[in-house]
Each structure stands twice: as C-alpha cells, then as structure tokens.
Amino acid sequence: MTPSLEVRGLHYRYPDGSVALQGVDLSVARGERVALLGPNGAGKTTLVLHLNGILSGDGEVRVGGLRVDPSDRSGITEIRRRVGIVFQDPDDQLFMPTVAEDVAFGPANLGLRGAELQARVDEALTAVGMQAYRDRTPHHLSFGQRRRVAVATVLAMRPEILVLDEPSSNLDPASRRELSEVLRGLPVTVLMVTHDLPYALELCSRSVVLDQGRIVADGATIELLADSDLLARHRLELPYGFDPKLAAAQLAAGG
Amino acid sequence: MGAGHAHPLYLDQASLVHRLAPEVKIVATVLFTVVVVVTPREEFAAFAGYAALVAAVAAVARVRPLWLLKRATIELPFVLLAVVLPFAGHGERVTWLGMSLSVDGLYGAWNIFAKGTLGVLASLLLAASTTTRDLIRGLDRLRCPQVITQIATFMLRYLDVLTAEARRMRIARLSRGHDPRFLWQVKAFAVGVGALFLRAFERGERVYLAMVSRGYTGRLPAPDGSTATAGQWAAGAVVPLLAGAIAMAVVLR
Q1: What is the pLDDT of residues A47-65, one digit of tens each?
Q2: How far is A48 from chain B (nearest CA, A)?
Q3: Whole-model pTM?
Q4: What domain range is B90 assigned to?
Q5: Nearest-CA residue of chain A relative to B7?
C-alpha cells in the first residue's frame, strides 16, 4: 500500500540563508499515528509547511503517492485537500463569522456546494463533538472548543493525513483529554508535532525526533522516551515525576 | 441565530423586519435616506410623514423608542454644529428670547437636524434588525466588490481578537507599575500600539497561510442561503415608496 506520507532528502534554506532542513527522510504508513518531536527551532513547522507545498525546498514529498509540486496548480489543490494542517493558534485558523461557515470554507474551495457541503460540515462537526455550536461565533468559544473546531475545519476536507501543530498547547487537562479522545476516534493518518512528550506517548505508538533539520531518531515512542541520553542530547524533557514505562503500562492496561 | 451577540446595535428577536432578506433592507434604507435628503428643507409636513414611517417600522420591528433614542445620540456632534448655524448665519434675522438669529441659519440647522436624525434612525433600524454578518452577506448579494466584503468579514472576526490582545497588553503594562496620567507618559502606550500593529501584521500572515492550506485561491466561496424573493422585495419597497409618495405630494402641492 502506498504510504500516506513520504519525504525524501528534503533540504530547505530560508531566504535569509539560515538552514532549516538538511536532509529529512520520513515515511508514515496509512492509518498510523506518528509524533514529530523536537525542541523549539528544530525545523518542525518548516517541515510541516513543506507537506502541503507552502514552502518548497530540494528533495521530494509525496502524499498518498502524489508528488507535491507547487508549480502544478491543480495538483497543489489536491495536495492541500489531502494534507489537513491544524495550526497552533485556532484564532489563525478560524476566521469566518460562524463555526459552520468556517468548517465549510475548505470543502467549498474544493468546489462542494449546497446539500453536499452541509453534509460535510455536519460530518466534521459531529466527529469533534461540536455540532451544537455550529452557528456560534468562534471568538465566543473556549480555547479547547476552538481547537476542536480547527480540527473539524480540516476534517471537512476528508484529508489523507491530519497534521497537528502542538495540539495540546494552552489546553487545560480536561480539554486535552477530550481532544485526545477525538483524535483517537478518527480513522485517519495523523502526524502530530509536539514537545508534549506524555501526549505523544498517549496518542502515538511511533515517534520521530527532529533536531537541527535532521531526523535523529525514529522508533517506538516508549523506547525513545525511556532513552534519557537521547532526550537530553536534543533538548527534550519529560515533565517532573513522569515515568514513561509506568505510563505505558497504565496505558496498555487501561486501553 | 446566536451569532449576533457581539454586536451592540443588534436586537436579537423575531419580527417581520428581522425576517426580511438583508439586501432588501439595505436597498430600502438607502432609498429612504435618498428621498429624505432630496426633500426641500421647508417641507415640514413631509418630514413629519417620514418620522411617522420610521416610527411604524420601529413598531413592526418591535424596537422600543427609548432604545432607538439612546443610540441616536451618536449624531450629537453633528447637531452641535447645527446649533451654531442660526447664530453665525447671514441674511434676514429674527429676534427670539432676546437673541438675534439668522433665518437662513435656522433653516440650515433644521435641515441638518431633521435629515440627519431620520438617516441615523433608519440606519439604526437596519442594524437592530440585521446581524453584521447578514449585512455583509446582503452587500455581497448586491454585487458589492468582494474585496470590500472580505475586508469587512475579516474586520468583524479579528476586531474582537485585537481588542482582547490590546486589553491584555494594557493589563500587563499596568501590572508592572505603569500609571499613565500625563501626556509625557504616553510613550509606553505608543510603543504598545506599534507592537499591536506588528502582532496584527504577523497574525495576518499566519491567517493567510492557514487559508492557503485549506485551498484558498483568492476568492471566498459564495455564501449559501436563499436570496430575497419577489414578495420580500415588494415588502421592502413599501417604506421607500411611501416616502417617495410623501415627497411627491408635498412638492407637487
């Protein structure tokens, strides 16, 4: 089966000359949930913006077998349908006057209209449990609700892969748990960019570590988190008192 | 619809006027205002007729007079200008309570006051019965250039975000002992405005990236929903037609 995401030898240098990515190789199989870990400034967001062709460097990115090529206009529309990016600040993502209109924005750009469009909106809002808020103004929702609506805005495009940039940031523990329940229930490939290591352990069986523009580790999340030398080398730290082995055992027992 | 409560001029209730399509109400308000403005200022009866029309629409829309009058105070600065005119005007003068007033100035003041008030009241009724979002939708259906409706949509959405950001920055300044009382202490505020501008600018860039990621190519999808029916246009035409009839009646008399 073609992998959902395939990145080969990706290099990128910002216009000011600073190097952001130096040879990233990454493959994510269909249905897999993978955490992309790395300290601030490791190039995580830069990598994410390559996945849907907003930035383009040397190397190759394929989404569900289709090559990302920003010069191919119709191809890039399909790529942007396949890659659903949920940005870190929901206020950047939610810009329409109501929740339903915002969720409709993506599929409408794909050419959906009328009843079909409404069905997509309902489907996406139901998936994140926000159907009751469809006519509300995004600004009046709580932060956790806005983040869930932001997830719905890309789900409505039925993406091949859902890319979440720091999904747990600024959430209270209850919203954090609600979001993880939503994400776990979605039948979609997930790439989760985060430095919230317990969240990565909870949601993703596999993790990759990006540092200084390179993938420096790739393996089972529990193995990576138990390797304290590896974490220390790449400025990753577990919260005080957090024991990854114990948490993994609890997770396995609790399901 | 629950979307209206960010908007202090909107009255969330059900009425015949609320149910009219926004584009109908916009056209009716503009036409009514045009008729009011072109009416010669000496035709007092006509203005009484217009006022009666406004009162009738307010009654149908279930807007209380006090609510309207309170919000109509926005026109006070213009009325102040009108008050000056009778004293400053030229030509024939009359004496009233020992004050010498210019007749031309009195007419001028009346002109500003009557037409201004009617225009403000009509706009307030439009705002009271239409959410901001519907207003934008109405403008869009009236073929208003998309650049303008898009800017209005973004303003509507991000004004609150920016206000909240400005408030947080102010609280952070006050928390660090900033206590601006005199003009020469305004520097921190001015720097804050600059920082807010930069943040707004950067946010604009991030919003654009997020939009492009969802397939934005420069045009917002046309909002769904039914456009106005012939019946709605007919209902909306009643007020401007009556106003036009009043104007014709007094001019041809």
Answers
A1: 999 999 989 999 999 999 9
A2: 11
A3: 0.76
A4: 2-139+227-252
A5: A137
